[in-house]
Specification:
The N and C termini lie far apart (78 Å). A hairpin with a 7-residue loop joins strand 2 and strand 3. The N terminus is likely disordered. Strands 1, 2, 3, 4, 5, 6, 7 and 8 form an 8-stranded mixed beta sheet that branches. Strands 16, 17, 18, 19, 20 and 21 form a 6-stranded antiparallel beta sheet that branches. The chain has a 5-stranded mixed beta barrel with strand order 9-11-12-14-13. Helix content is 26%, strand content 32%. By secondary structure, it is of the alpha+beta class.
Length: 507
């Protein structure tokens, strides 16, 4: 193959620079290892394009072209220029992959105009060609602290004067490279389930770990101003798996936020490599955060991910995921500020497919506490949260990890409520779990001991009373109303507060 490539070099005037010898001297072992992905014809095609494999990069290679899919990318940022006092240099980094085993980090440096324009041309998941980068030995200390861990000894530097980055226009190369986006950079079995994280609690505080989970919901992007006057943004994503129904993941970078907003939806399985988990004292629970080291693989191609997908598909198809208030959401009430009427809630749900949170001042017009206990308090599997079958012995989820094992059951309120104001009614809102306990003022065990007259008295303490209600609303085409609303908090409203807020809405 080496001599065939030399012949191609002599006959192709487009290849004016001498092809690097090490591109042609690919070992039999490397070809065998990549045989599932790269055939000999593709290697010859890469040679004709003058692409240097990441595995063959070294500091002696010049005038090269490297192709790969972007698996991670950071926002651009500025630093004081020590050579030109008073001015700034700008940079951003990204990580590319050109084979199942090989990937490395790339940094672009230049003035603000160049860096902002370059960064806007491509995003995570794109296949790019990097022309004439500078190959440098990576600084292990800095890379381990601030960049994704890579197996390469090198990193690439891109500058406006000497280098260029383009979207790959070669269909054959793109077809070969793009599937790598769904291949992990970590051992597929090296991850924590959400239950493992919550069970370990604060012993994991500050640790960098891998997580395999699916997207439950993507929140609204929040904007703020930093202490130095620069603009910032924050996005909260709720994850779930077959062990926990909701777990928060916080994102700060625009690039990652864009990834979640454009490439994920409810039920999308993710492998999140090198996320930081910390204890959130405000919520009194553990949360995960995406950092500059984190690589997120969407729809990972592994047996573990496929097994999780099979389980969550059942949860989504049955609608069981929406049957109860998500754990921990009642602790984020201070971050909910939008006050909406019932008609505004319906309108927003029609305009946006994503879940949203709001406050409404409304009357409870239906609260059925006189039904049979089984319609008010539900028994669920402690592992997957699906309902227990009527026999009381088995979980209704055929993909539940507890199938064939001893069944552990949890019980909780699941009450349906109608809320109304002067603009309309929201029917069958879910009042469940600990939120229902706080609203009703009793535990499930205490409720089961109440007489019918005591339940009626409890109902009328809330029925037809104006309440301040925090809601989570998500689109649900299968329901008659086209939405599902979960009550995150419900308490009698302060009349002064009601007048102030309703006056603003009416005005």
């Amino acid at each position: 193959m080496y001599y065939k490539l030399l012949q191609l070099q002599q006959t192709n005037n487009c290849l004016r620079n001498e092809l690097p010898t090490n591109l042609f001297k690919l070992s039999t072992e490397r070809i065998s290892a990549a045989s599932c992905f790269v055939c000999r014809d593709e290697i010859q095609n890469a040679a004709m394009q003058n692409y240097v494999p990441i595995s063959d990069l070294n500091m002696n290679i010049t005038h090269s072209k490297v192709v790969g899919v972007i698996i991670g990318k950071t926002d651009s940022r500025g630093f004081p220029d020590r050579k030109n006092v008073g001015s700034e240099r700008f940079t951003f980094s990204f990580t590319i992959k050109d084979s199942p085993q090989h990937f490395l980090n790339v940094s672009a440096w230049g003035n603000e105009e160049y860096i902002q324009a370059l960064s806007s041309r491509f995003q995570i998941g794109d296949c790019v060609v990097i022309e004439n980068p500078l190959v440098v030995t990576k600084d292990y200390e800095k890379e381990e602290r601030f960049c994704p861990s890579t197996p390469s000894l090198y990193r690439l530097l891109v500058t406006e004067t000497h280098s260029a980055i383009k979207i790959c226009s070669d269909l054959e190369t793109e077809t070969r490279i793009l599937p790598l986006f769904h291949m992990l950079i970590k051992d597929p079995g090296d991850f924590y389930s959400l239950r493992d994280i919550t069970a370990n609690g604060q012993s994991l505080d500050g640790n960098i770990i891998n997580i395999l989970a699916a997207v439950q919901s993507v929140g609204d992007e929040k904007f703020f101003t930093k202490s130095d006057g620069r603009k910032g943004q924050r996005l909260e994503v709720w994850l779930f798996d077959d062990t926990v129904k909701s777990y928060p993941l916080v994102c700060w970078d625009k690039e990652i936020i864009q990834l979640f907003q454009t490439q994920t939806q409810r039920g999308t399985v993710l492998f999140i490599a090198d996320a930081r988990v910390t204890f959130d004292s405000f919520r009194s629970c553990m949360i995960a955060t995406v950092t500059s080291k984190t690589i997120i693989t969407v729809h990972p191609d592994t047996a573990e991910a496929n097994q999780l997908y099979a389980c969550i598909r059942t949860m989504l198809e049955t609608g069981d995921l929406d049957q109860e208030v998500l754990p921990g959401e009642s602790m984020q009430l201070d971050s909910i500020s939008d006050v909406l009427t019932v008609s505004q809630i319906k309108a927003r749900n029609q305009e946006h497919a994503d879940a949203f949170h709001c406050i409404t001042y409304a009357f409870i017009t239906m609260l059925e506490l006189g039904s049979s206990i089984s319609k008010i308090i539900r028994n669920r599997c402690a592992k997957c949260k699906f309902q227990i079958n009527e026999d009381g012995q088995t979980c209704s989820n055929p993909a539940c990890p507890s199938q064939g094992q001893q069944l552990h059951v949890t019980s909780g309120f699941e009450v349906l409520v109608d809320i109304s104001d002067h603009t309309g009614t929201l029917k069958t809102c879910s009042l469940a779990g600990t939120v229902a306990e706080k609203t009703l003022g009793c535990k499930t065990e205490e409720f089961m001991c109440l007489s019918e007259s005591q339940r009626t008295t409890m109902k009328w303490t809330l029925l037809l009373e104006r309440c301040k209600i925090y809601l989570k609303v998500l689109s649900s085409p299968k329901t008659r109303s086209g939405m599902k609303a979960s009550i995150l908090s419900c308490a009698l409203a302060d009349p002064v507060e009601v007048k102030q807020n309703l006056g603003v809405l009416v005005g």
